[in-house]
Amino acid sequence: MHKGVATVAQRGEFDEIIDARTPAEFAEDHIPGAVNLPVLDNEQRATVGTIYTQQSPFEARRIGGAMVAENIARHVFGYMQDKPKRWRPLIYCWRGGQRSGAFTTWLRMIGWDASQLEGGYKRFRHLVIEDIARIAPALQWRVIGGATGSAKTRILEALAAEGAQVVDLEGLAAHKGSVLGALPDRPQPTQKGFETALHAVLSALDPAQPVFVEAESRRIGRIFLPDPLLFAIRDAPCIVIDATREARLEYLVRDYAYLGDDIPRLQGLIEKLRGLQSNERIDSWLALAGARALPALFGEFIDHHYDPLYRRSQNGNYSAYGTAPRIAADDLRPHSIPLLARRILAAIQR
Questions:
Q1: In 3-state terms, what secondary structure has residue 258?
Q2: How far apart are CA 177 and CA 216, in angstroms?
Q3: What is the distance between the alpha carbons of residues 168 and 166, in angstroms, rounded to a whole number?
Q4: Cβ contacts of residue 200 below 8 Å, gap of 6+?
Q5: Chain-centre distance of CA 179, in angstroms?
Q6: Is 38 inside a domain boundary?
Q7: Domain carrying residue 333
Q8: Does 133 reside within a domain?
């Protein structure tokens, strides 16, 4: 590469990565660790686009150029005022075009050894997709299965604490996977944001060692698992947590306790099941939610929603499920989870 241009593979060689796109583009997804210093904000980019189509490309460049110069000056006087001469930033926009090119030119004129990312975010996005397709099938997946309420996510955390490699897909998707799974204090990422985070996790794994993951359906909330990952884990060896109904009920009531603090939200989630369950049952569940009777409500969920759904999905989706070793559990309280993790590690070493 000639001076002032860098490839996506070289992105780790720089002191800082600057995303010159709009805040809206940055919020959808960005290179991990990048800072957003837009050369056009959301409204300015829309204005320039309108001028381009309704007046002329020249007029759009004239007005847009002035906006870009003003914004770059503000970043230089603000964010960059204390950056030393030896500072080396990497700058990108959507396709490595005019926005990052203008920014890089100005910073190089000032004296910083700035570089523009060849191909911009679009090239990074291609890398994410290509790497997931390459890495996911090559990993030694070990799938933790079990009915809803079997504390699989907590078990993954305990496995990680024991030094095992873990990929927490629900954590990356900010969703517990079930109809009630939306988190109260954390929105789900965009699909692109999820895949970027997944790429970072997969890239750090040792392919020579097992990687534990929870059995998932194709979709976690509104996030879809990439096909190369989904197909890889569906063909992988499984370990099933065979927890008692009582243990699962206690765990669910504890894990979803926050729903008792927002009854309208809980009832709204229950309404989403109308059509999958009879109106009579939905009305009964709404009444239980209104009474904050979470143990009775989750008992109903187990018997009439979670378990029937689980029986239909796991046997059909995971090829090794039927012959998987089973880990019996009659206690899913926090002190018991590390013991289950150690039993799983012992089981895969046999």
A1: helix
A2: 8
A3: 6
A4: 32
A5: 18
A6: yes
A7: 140-348
A8: no
In terms of domains, do 84 and 145 share one?
no
pLDDT at 177 exceeding the cut of 90: no
Residues 109 and 156 both lie in one domain: no
Instruction: Evaluate if residue 331 carries a pLDDT over 80.
Output: yes
CATH number of the structural domain spanning residue 17: 3.40.250.10
Give the per-residue pLDDT at 315: 60
Q: Is the pLDDT of residue 350 over 80?
A: no
Whether 2 shows a pLDDT value over 70: the answer reads: no
147 in the same domain as 83:
no
- Residue numbers annotated as active site: 93
Number of domains in the chain: 2
Average pLDDT over residues 210-220: 95
* The pLDDT value given to residue 311: 78
Give all strands (DSSP E) within the chain, no chain letters.
5-6, 16-19, 35-36, 89-92, 115-117, 140-145, 165-167, 210-214, 219-220, 223-224, 238-243, 326-329
Structure tokens at 212: 């534990």
Quote the tokens at residue 205: 């794994």
- Rounded Cα distance between 4 and 101, Å, is 10
| 132 falls within a domain | no
Kind of pairing between the strands at 219-220 and 223-224: antiparallel
What count of Cα atoms within 13 Å lies in the side-chain half-sphere of residue 12?
A: 2
What are the pLDDT digits (tens) for 138-161?
Answer: 999 999 999 999 999 999 999 999
| Domain identity same for 324 and 269 | yes
Residues 200-211 have pLDDT tens digits of 999 999 999 999
Q: pLDDT at position 3, please? A: 73
Domain-located, residue 131? no
pLDDT tops 90 at residue 179: no
On the question of pLDDT at 1 being above 60, the answer is no
Tell me: do 261 and 149 sit in the same domain: yes
Domain co-membership, 96 together with 160: no
